[in-house]
Write a structure and sequence with these properties.
single chain, 7-stranded parallel β-sheet, alpha/beta
Length: 242
């Protein structure tokens, strides 16, 4: 049986943990040549992938990698950061940090790898947004929600500008997903159990999602199964937005 990503090359950012790692593992299992990148190079250990250290906030590093790799079929922009707080709680630097990681870095990756995709006849870009932002207001996630809303705008812009050149660009919008990042945020509250109960309670399904569940939707978009989809946001949230 032919695997869904046979013959495809997929570049993944934020691949060391969470959704990025789950997608890297699934893509490899589906036959892709996976290029796994993360600022935490040690965290990439164990992946059946071509591994590269990459800080997506470093323009020179991104451009150098694009020149080194050439064309990829699939770009999965997963690297991100969750900032807590209301608009009254956060500093100018915290705003800049989140937008640098969550928005500018995605735009930078797309700008670096898109020309070779176009020259090669097409490509597939998938960005991680969130239900927090333009989909739903989540308490104490002002900067995060604003940055992820920008990701949806970026996704639609790239999709409409390059649809006739064989480019598809979509986003996925997870709800609360179990990951090392979530575990750290729960621990940082000072009361892990209470925080986990609160996060779970806001999910109508009564549980937190898994990285593998998000990876399954990303695979659909990356494969020919999703060939007629572009400019769309795929919400995977356990019912939080219903």
């Amino acid at each position: 049986m032919r695997k869904r990503l046979d013959g495809k090359t997929a570049l993944i950012t934020g691949a060391a943990a969470g959704i990025g790692r789950a997608v890297s593992e699934l893509f490899a299992a589906e036959g892709a040549h996976v290029i796994a990148t993360d600022r935490d190079f040690a965290g990439l250990k164990g992946l059946g992938a071509d591994r590269h250290a990459l800080d997506v906030t470093n323009p020179q590093a991104v451009e150098a990698l694009a020149q080194k790799l050439g064309r990829v079929d699939i770009l999965f922009n997963c690297a991100g950061f969750v900032e807590a707080g209301t608009i009254l709680d956060n500093s100018e630097q915290e705003w800049l940090k989140s937008f640098e990681i969550n928005v500018f870095a995605m735009a930078r990756m797309i700008r670096a790898f898109l020309p070779a995709m176009i020259a090669g006849g097409g490509g597939n870009i998938i960005n991680v947004a969130s239900v927090s932002g333009s989909i739903k207001g989540i308490p104490n996630r002002c900067i995060y929600g604003a940055s992820k809303a920008a990701v949806i705008g970026l996704t639609k812009s790239v999709a409409v500008d390059f649809v006739q050149q064989g480019i598809r660009c979509n986003s996925v919008c997870p709800g609360t997903v179990d990951s090392p990042s979530l575990q750290q945020r729960l621990a940082d509250t000072g009361d892990y159990e209470a925080a986990r109960k609160a996060f779970t309670a806001r999910q109508p399904m009564g549980r937190i999602g898994t990285a593998q569940e998000i990876a399954g939707v990303v695979l659909y978009l990356a494969s020919d199964d999703g060939a007629f989809c572009t400019g769309q946001n795929f919400i995977i949230d356990g019912g939080i937005t219903i």
